[in-house]
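I am still getting used to backbone structure tokens and would like to learn alongside you. To get us started, please write out a protein record for me. Once you have written the record down, we can walk along the chain together.
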Amino acid sequence: MITKRRCPHTGIVNFYTKSDPLLAIGSVSAGAIPAQYIWRSYLDDHEVGVAPDISVAEAHLRDAIARARDLHQGLI
């Protein structure tokens, strides 16, 4: 299970696993250009991308996390 929390100071949305709720496995933040959101996976694959909407960025990040889980079953 993945949970997310938004930092009230920076606005960055961090994603965590239930097994380690203090270590972020990914994040979504606003880009320099308006209506641009950058998503980053902090897992082994270190995937990153840009999306025009925060919900789309979150969906891409969740897909990247799922791919990493498939590669490393039981570790995440």
